[in-house]
């Protein structure tokens, strides 16, 4: 496999990775390669916000508080927090092409574009946007 860019985990990817759920072979191979090359798997701080929303809405059963779950993700081997910047937040409102309005997804896309990252996700909207060539994404 050719060297890929660093990876940015979508919230769903982080949850499934932490639970040991099935991941698509292409995503698993890219994450394994990143690990072998000692490149971090990036986890956006927006994921902490999304975990809070999921807990509040009862959309995800969590064994611990969202802050503890987020910290547990960061404790996974090779996972590193990806800070947000004013530029990324502004860019998330100015994305080219047609992208849906979910602010977290827009922030993930803007982060990946700004830092030359590939998003690992199951989110069909992000994957469709990637097919348009505006960002790289791998299905997980």
TrEMBL record:
Classification via InterPro entries: PIN-like_dom_sf (IPR029060), PIN_dom (IPR002716), PIN_Sll0205 (IPR041705), TA_system_RNase (IPR052919)
One Pfam family this sequence matches: PIN
Superkingdom, taxonomy of origin: Bacteria
SUPFAM superfamilies per record: PIN domain-like
Domain PIN intervals: 8-127
Record-given protein name: Twitching motility protein PilT
Biological classification of the source: Bacteria, Pseudomonadati, Pseudomonadota, Alphaproteobacteria, Hyphomicrobiales
């Amino acid at each position: 496999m050719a060297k890929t860019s660093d990876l940015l985990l979508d919230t769903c990817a982080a949850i499934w990775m932490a639970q040991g759920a099935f991941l698509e072979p292409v995503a698993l191979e890219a994450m394994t390669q990143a690990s072998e090359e000692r490149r971090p798997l990036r986890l956006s701080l927006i994921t902490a916000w999304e975990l809070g929303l999921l807990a509040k809405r009862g959309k995800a059963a969590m064994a611990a508080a969202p802050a503890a779950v987020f910290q547990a993700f960061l404790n996974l081997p090779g996972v590193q927090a990806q800070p947000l910047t004013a530029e990324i937040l502004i860019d998330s409102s100015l994305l080219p092409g047609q992208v849906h309005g979910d602010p977290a997804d827009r922030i993930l896309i803007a982060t990946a574009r700004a830092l030359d990252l590939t998003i690992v996700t199951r989110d069909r909207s992000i994957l469709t946007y990637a097919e348009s060539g505006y960002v790289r994404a791998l299905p997980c």
